[in-house]
Design a protein that fits this description.
single chain, alpha+beta, 5-stranded antiparallel sheet
């Protein structure tokens, strides 16, 4: 292997391509796949490649992030220091699949999804072993999104894009029939064929889920007990251990029936079947971390003995691994992450929709967990909707403390405060302003996209729900902001606290106004009486009767 590696890297065109790919990035050598060299490190000159190979390096890996000076990177740096040093990041989707046929199909679907989002700057290369790398250079992204520099959206930007694209592909480009799965409308396999090719079971390949709540469509089988009155026709569900039930209207025993049923995921399930792409493919970008590395173009792969060679997108389905043999690989024919001639901002739609998708998913998850808590505790959350925004002076102690900024639990606090403020009658523009002011108080601020996505989701659905109840251990006590006052013992929810306190203040204000009005009226009447007395004394007449009294 060492002989093959040395012969490959001796080629000047290979050295030039690797150095070109490493510009502005960390470039780290791997020793036989058994470990990396020192970090941070860079490649500046073509001869740097050959010198490292002579010292035992067999492959080269570069960072997805670009830096003003990679050698200034330190493990002791804080998040804001990384952001200051970072100049951008490239989107690199690492499609890793042990089934070569499906590795190409999955890569094809990802590329199609990117193109559908208006991105033309998509490039491709063979990873060197089991899959492909799909690249979109940073130049295709906007410089800012909602006043936040895009360069600072790492690693959450690529993570959320990968999660969003997986969902988009499984919903838009993979259809599941009773006994077959069709990819992109052109690659069709029966479930039996998929099971044979992948060794996966039917339940692993295809999952039933509820479109309403996102949970698995049906849970464990249960016995359903049902009571029916044969006289009036009324019916009611019963407990498993109930043998008899009397009709409340007719005062007769009801007829008991038992049926095997499966428990629904929610009250109104809409069960659909969806192919699970993660059953046959891994997308490493989902697990991406800061300073993440990927194999450089034309770098050797120790396990396969092949080269990570860039290829044209339209040649994907015809590409075979033999074309990546070091002696056969075409060097310099195609560029991975090509940066010239890129239309800036073409990937904005993808980035915004990815952040919105994850925000909706996270909010929906918390809503469902909260609804589960409600059902278990039998707490009704219906309340009279507030028509006028409640001022902050009436907020409960926990919210007052959170409003000053938080060190931990900020993401959960976004969910709490979004629902709290909307329940208190705040308009969404005012909620957005509150979050921006609050975020500036946090020692380590969140990305604006995190709370803006949740606000947009709530605004689009025009759905107001109460924040989690006071006894929910995951929130206020978990934040260590639960400092109850005298009113807290009479409410179960922070929004109810604000509503009660605001209404009490309003009543007191009305009482005060009424008291003032009564006082003014009494003073006015007293003044009239005084005037009558004075008039009577002066004229010697009864002002009230109009009769003249003789001397």
């Amino acid at each position: 292997m060492l002989s093959k590696v040395l012969n490959h890297y001796k080629r000047l065109e290979v050295q030039n391509e690797i150095v070109k790919a490493a510009q502005g990035k960390e470039a780290v050598g791997s020793f036989g796949g058994k470990g990396y060299g020192k970090r941070p490190d860079v490649l500046v000159y073509p001869n740097d490649v050959l010198e490292q190979v002579k010292n035992g390096v067999t492959s080269f890996h570069v960072s997805e992030e670009t830096w003003a000076n990679p050698q200034r990177i330190s493990l002791n740096m804080k998040r804001n220091e990384y952001d200051d040093l970072r100049t951008g990041w490239d989107l690199v989707l690492d499609i890793d699949c042990p089934y070569w046929e499906f590795a190409k199909i999955t890569t094809y679907l990802f590329i199609q999804a990117l193109v559908e989002h208006g991105i033309s700057a998509v490039t491709l290369k063979f990873s060197g072993n089991k899959g492909f790398h799909i690249g979109v250079p940073f130049e295709a992204f906007p410089s800012k999104v909602h006043d936040t520099p895009t360069k600072n959206m790492f690693p959450e930007g690529p993570r959320k894009i990968a999660a969003y694209l997986l969902d988009h592909i499984s919903r838009k480009h993979v259809s599941v029939d009773s006994d077959s799965v069709t990819f992109a409308g052109r690659f069709k396999y029966t479930l039996k064929e998929l099971e044979e090719k992948t060794g996966k079971s039917n339940d692993e390949l295809v999952q039933a889920y509820c479109e309403n709540c996102g949970k698995a469509g049906m849970e464990e089988a249960t016995q359903r007990i049902h009571f029916l009155c044969t006289q009036c026709g009324s019916s009611i569900d019963g407990l498993v251990n109930e043998k008899y039930k009397t009709c409340s209207k007719c005062n007769v025993l009801m007829e008991r029936t038992v049926s095997d049923n499966k428990k629904s995921c929610c009250t109104k399930p809409n069960i659909v079947k969806k192919f699970n792409p993660l059953s046959i493919v891994e997308v490493d970008t989902v697990l991406i971390a800061p300073r993440h590395l990927f194999r450089a173009p034309y770098s050797y792969h120790e396990k396969s003995g092949l080269v990570s060679v860039p290829i044209p997108i339209d040649a994907l389905m015809d590409f075979e691994k033999e074309q990546a043999h070091p002696d056969k690989a075409e060097i310099g024919g195609h560029e991975f992450l090509k940066r010239e001639g890129i239309v800036a901002g073409q990937a904005k739609k993808l980035l915004v929709e990815a952040f919105d998708f994850v925000a909706r998913k996270e909010q929906r998850k918390v809503e469902l967990e909260d609804m589960d808590d409600m059902r278990r505790s039998d707490i009704k959350r219906e309340f009279q909707e507030v028509q006028t925004a409640i001022p902050e002076q009436f907020f409960p102690p926990c919210v007052q403390i959170m409003s000053k900024g938080m060190t931990d639990g900020k993401k959960r606090a976004v969910f709490v405060m979004n629902n709290f403020l909307s329940s208190c009658g705040w308009e969404y523009d005012d909620i957005e302003g509150w979050f921006k002011r609050w975020n500036e108080k946090n020692p380590e601020p969140l990305r604006d996209q995190y709370f803006l996505g949740q606000i947009r989701y709530a605004k689009q659905h025009k759905k107001k729900i109460l924040p989690p109840n006071c006894d929910n251990q995951a929130y206020y006590k978990g934040f260590q902001v639960c400092k109850p006052d005298g009113l807290c013992q009479y409410v179960k929810n922070p929004a109810n606290y604000a509503i009660k306190k605001a209404r009490f203040a309003q009543k007191q204000e009305m009482k005060g106004k009424k008291s003032v009005e009564n006082k003014e009226f009494k003073e006015k009447m007293d003044k009239k009486e005084e005037q009558k007395v004075e008039q009577k004394a002066e004229t010697g007449s009864d002002a009230g009767s109009g009769v003249v009294t003789p001397d």
